[in-house]
Amino acid sequence: MKLFETLDIKTINGLPILHIPSVNAITVADLHLGYEEALAHKGVLYPKSQFNIILKILLDGFEKTGSDLLIINGDLKHEFGHFSFQERKEIEILLEELLTHFKKIVIVRGNHDNYLINIIRKFENVEFVSPYLTLGKYGFTHGHELSLDLFSTNMECIIIAHEHPALGLRDDVYVKIKVPAVFFGETKVGKKIVVQPALSPIAVGVEVNMQLQSEFLSPILRDKKLVDIGNLEAIALDIEAGAFRFPKLKKWQKMDQY
Q1: Does residue 29 belong to any structural domain of this protein?
Q2: Phi and psi (nearest 5°) for 27?
Q3: How many domains does the chain have?
Q4: In a 3-state reduction of DSSP, which class is residue 69?
Q5: How many whole angstroms separate alpha carbon 184 and alpha carbon 191?
Q6: What is the domain-level CATH number for residue 44?
Q7: Which residues, at least 6 apart from 19, have a Cβ–Cβ distance to it below 8 Å?
Q8: In the chain, which residues have pLDDT < 70?
Q9: What confidence score (pLDDT) does residue 125 get?
Q10: In a domain, 4, yes or no
Q11: Is residue 257 part of a domain?
Q12: Domain that holds residue 194
């Protein structure tokens, strides 16, 4: 499903992946490898299951697009500090496997990616960039920093992550579900913006249709001079059911809170 009429960025069915044919790339964000071990240290026992899910989604994305380039837009790892055992093991296995398919992987630094360079420097075709990547008409930044200079470039579309956008939806009997989503639209400064969903299946994230703009995680989305949240649209993503496009938030959600 295409996000914009004039740009070629699109979803791949209901996968939490974006495909950009013009740069022969797919992009994902917020994998948070090692999250289960971090939860265990807090007394929350969660099966170590997300690695296999993440790898399958990425390989499905490659199979469906044949892209040469994988862009990971921040937070490959979960711990803010040094690596946990699980993180180190899973990052190495993941990169080794992905490099048998993708010709190159670019990782844009996220706020959780401290010390990541210590692992990825041994992979020849993995590049680590900070604070942003520019490629074709697109600029990629994780979104935990404002990066105003990126908005002053000639990029047509800024792609961020960090927010882990989701939609909170209720049925006729008010049973609520949370669905990962792509959040996108026009900014107030003439750029298009896309907020990527989290690839981590256990860190689905923030219900963008139920948040005050001041409550968003990303300073980019909190900045009312840059973005009017009510003018952004969402595509809900479900691996089994597919992708479902919603109109601008202000058309289906009371927006006086913004």
Answers
A1: yes
A2: -135, 140
A3: 1
A4: strand
A5: 11
A6: 3.60.21
A7: 9, 10, 11, 12, 25, 26, 61, 64, 65, 67
A8: 172-175, 253-258
A9: 97
A10: no
A11: no
A12: 10-252
